[in-house]
Amino acid sequence: MTTGTWRLATLVIRRERLIAPFWMALLAVLAAGQAGRYAQSFPTARSIADFAREMAANRALTAFAGEVHSPTVAGMAVWKNADAIYTVLALIAILTIVRHTRGEEESGRAELVGAGVIGRFAPLTAALAFTACAMVATGLICALAMISTGFDVTGSLSFGAAITAVGLVFTGVGALAAQLTESARAATGLAALVLGVSYLVRFTADGSGLTWLKWLSPQGWSHLVRPYGDDNWAALLPALALAALTAALAYLLAGRRDLGHGLIPQRPGPAGSVRLRSPLSLAWRLHRGLLAGWSVGYAVAGLVLGALARSIPEVSRQGASVQEFLHRYTASPEASMTDAYLWLIALSLGYVAALYPLLALLRLRKEELEGRAELLLATPVSRMRWAGGHLFLALAGSALILTVAGLTLGLAAGDPLGVLGGTLVQIPAVWVLAGVGVLVFGLLPRAAAGISWAAFLFVNLFGEVLGPIMGIDYWIAKYVVPFPNLPMVLSGEEFGAGPLLVMTVITIACSAAGLTALKRRALV
């Protein structure tokens, strides 16, 4: 049943030979780079202990980063970036396993390879083996990076194990999702939904002080390891058990379904439908499921995160770290810690929402690759109308999900109109990513998916994480990342339309260039 696994594994390795080392190195830089930065900023044990005390009192940051478990340089470095590493690695695991399982079936390559001497479970085994080994390697590299910086070996190894554990869990989740759905897009969405719920549970646990909730979240299990604190290795047992369970279920379902099909079948459209009268109505038919899922998810997230705003206490503003936090996320000395929290939430919702238009626009590439675009364009439908329908829904959809989030966040926080305004100003920044998606689809269609994901990760990591680690001042990020330019209307800054107009113009320019390139290039 697993005949040919090694050959398929070498194929996976060849396809991942460039991207896998890159993200492994990136996460190692996040881990050790932050530790090196803190070592320079806090040269004495007293200074790092004072910093830890200030951060532990800041409930807003605790919700985002988790509890402070060790008032040391290594412990605070883990506190600062561990949650980002766990989340990014989980997303990478999902994308990798889905690409080499459901993605291969959807493209037809799995059927072609299966015509040879290949066992039924060989593709799944090869994909699981590579992804699991990559997760272990990532954890080990991050641990070695911390050890090489001069930190405790036991704490570094427990940190690496926590990183590996969350990666293995979502490797199994991704493999299971690939058996349930009929498309890579749906499988990625289903697994990402599990990731989002896991993050929300962990966020709620730390933000509310109900730390027992972390036992219900895979990311929470990694937080409970408490590297450089008491190194609670037992917290990894649920992660290993869930990873093994999801992988076993993936094998069970793989043996009971037909190649190219999932356990959750796609619903066919109604026979003789007259609704698809335009490219826009077709685009709506293709995107409505994705939009509904994002809208519901953002509505729930807004309610939960808004409810936590009522429990954010005020803290002393004397510490340098608190001053830096307030400088970054508030624009008025009268702004409260709750104001800073609400702006940080609105900003975070905007950062994540930037993925929606990219996913929506990548549907254009899928339609092109699978030949449906060519069939459609053989009719009187022009390329501009075809792509324009998808672009319109990408822009309108991202505006809708942020509006929904703003309404529920504001209702839960007790300020519906004010908080809604804070989420609405995120829309032009999100649209910039949509413009980038159209541009790369028109100019570099073969690289559209890779560039789109790279743009999303760059925007999310550069200004808030990588920039400070590399010694790049925060204001420099304003030249390359749209979100830091937004007026902080929830934390004391007056609304200014200038940055929003500039972002809108950039979106229009990128979209026009991309559509023009699409009009002139050959379909591939």
TrEMBL record:
The chain crosses the membrane at residues 84-101, 121-147, 159-178, 190-213, 233-254, 290-309, 340-362, 391-413, 425-444, 451-477, 497-518. Keywords: Membrane, Transmembrane, Transmembrane helix. It comes from the Bacteria. Coiled coil: none annotated. This is ABC transporter permease. It comes from Nonomuraea roseola.
